[in-house]
Amino acid sequence: MAQYDYDLFVIGAGSGGVRAARLAAMSGAKVAVAEEDRVGGTCVIRGCVPKKFMVYASEYASHFKTAEGYGWSFPEAPRFDWPNFLAEKDREIARLSGIYVTNLQNAGAELAHAKARLVDAHTIELVGKDKTVTADKILIATGGRPWVPKDLPGIEHVITSDEAFHIADLPKRMVIAGGGYIAVEFACIFKGLGVEVTLVHRGPNILRGFDDNVRAHLAEEMTRKGIDVLLGCQHERVEKTASGLVSHLSSGATLESDLVLFALGREPYVEGLGLEAAGVEQKDGAIIVDDYSRTNVKNIWAVGDVTNRINLTPVAIREGAAFAQTEFYDNPTTFDHEMVASAVFSQPAIGSVGLTEAEARQTHGKVDIYLSRFRAMKQTFAGGEERALIKLVVDAESQKLLGCHVVASDGPEIIQMAAIALKMGVTKAQWDSTCAVHPTLAEELVTMREKYAPQDLGPTA
Questions:
Q1: Which of 126, 148, 379, 411 has its CA 20 to 30 A from that of 365?
Q2: DSSP letter assigned to residue 18
Q3: Which residues pair with 176 in a beta bridge?
């Protein structure tokens, strides 16, 4: 609109902000984006993408061992070059970040490399640039940041997931605090790269929010691979000594390591945004929004992790796209947050969609459970011990599938297709009518006919 510098100003150039900005700009709107760090956000710069590269790198240790079971031999022991990997990883991240910048520019959006702060509901200060601009509409897409207990003695000696992508030298011993997907993934990554890893988590089991069978199964597999999983305790302080770092735990135990990584969760990144000046309401640090991602201020919206709804990159993208469709294409659109699949790139990996067994029993009453736990064909032939787990949660009355959970190397790939069926409301009979693809691990999904009872499978079945 003429009285403003921009039709839309987006704060944050991560996945959600970039998608919204591009679509809005392509409608003919005048759009600007401010990003205080590198373009691409958490996912591209310090999250999903570099983490997946690290997962790939760490898996080769087990691949080499499996290869020997298939007749391959190595005259010399394979050697991993951490500095070379880091350099290649950084080059690829820079390339991807550049693509994001190019896509914004090609769409016609302006990009400001600066932190943006709200002065009021229509005015934005570009901090350090001695410049303010105005906008008709403002979208906040600043994502999240690692949370650490700032009052913990010795907290200055630990790193977070942000720094984990830039460790100069691989440590020999490492302690990871946390039990969520970030902690679990990094524990598996560094173990695969030859680091002695201890995971410390205050809860009774890892991965709160996932199905209990999945949680127990992965904890067992991680332990089998040599990761020391300590549950029911947490850090009381971290002490720096001449030989390394000492973690003092609430259990009274002490752990000496070369590196301590805290992965205790993430929090919405709202620091210095000026939300109070603009009158934007928050709850527990997150920006409150409605189904259309609108805040309590009529011209300000927020998408992605800063709203703390479902903190996944594809969700932020869909929320950003829905905002653009609604506000710039006269096409009111919301994103359905039900039946969103997720993955944990642990080893073995997890793919999950829908309800856990506990959630299903609470919301639907009686449910039928189908569960299979087995060594995959590839593992069996090579003498491997890794076991897969597949679980279906079915509403007993309607026979609709309420949840599907896969723990296997290809679990995240499998769950994408399963999510389509569950989103469409597939029943167990329809699911079972699908012919199996043989020989695959995924065929187990459509061949489970017998309902599961807890006594059917022991801990090592």
A1: 411
A2: H
A3: 199, 261
How far apart are the C-alpha atoms of 180 and 187, rounded to whole Å? 11
Give the C-alpha distances (Å, rounded to integers) separating 202 from 30, 81, 161, 191. Answer: 49, 34, 19, 21
* 3-class DSSP state of 459: coil
Q: For 169-224, write each residue's pLDDT tens digit.
A: 999 999 999 999 999 999 999 999 999 999 999 999 999 999 999 999 999 999 99
- Per DSSP, the residues of 30-62 read -EEEE-SS-TTHHHHHHSHHHHHHHHHHHHHHH
pLDDT of residue 456: 53
Q: So what's the pLDDT on residue 432?
A: 97
Cα–Cα dist 134/104, whole Å: 20
The H or E element containing residue 262 is strand 259-262
- The CA-based diameter of the chain, rounded to the nearest angstrom, is 73
Among the listed residues 157, 166, 364, 438, the single catalytic one is 438
Round to whole Å and give the CA distance between 184 and 180.
6
Is 201 among the residues known to form the active site?
Answer: no
pTM (predicted TM-score): 0.95
Q: How far apart are CA 45 and CA 98, in angstroms?
A: 11
d(CA 174, CA 194): 11
Q: Which tokens belong to 67?
A: 């290869």
Q: Report helix, strand and coil shares of the chain as percent, to nearest 5.
A: 35, 25, 40
CA dihedral 94, 95, 101, 106 (to 10 degrees): 170
- pLDDT score of 2: 66
pLDDT at position 460 is 40
- Residues 62-107 have pLDDT tens digits of 999 999 999 999 999 999 999 999 999 999 999 999 999 999 999 9
Backbone angles phi, psi at 165, to 5 degrees: -85, 0
Listed in sequence order, the residues at least 6 apart from 62 whose beta carbon sits closer than 8 Å to its beta carbon are 192, 347, 384
Alpha carbon distance 180, 210 (integer Å):
10
Q: How far apart are CA 88 and CA 95, in angstroms?
A: 11
* Under-50 pLDDT residues of the chain: 458-461
Paired with 230 in beta bridges are 200
Residue 189 parent element (H or E): helix 181-192
- The candidate with the shortest Cα–Cα distance to 303, out of 281, 46, 290, 181, is 290
Does residue 383 sit in helix, strand or coil?
coil
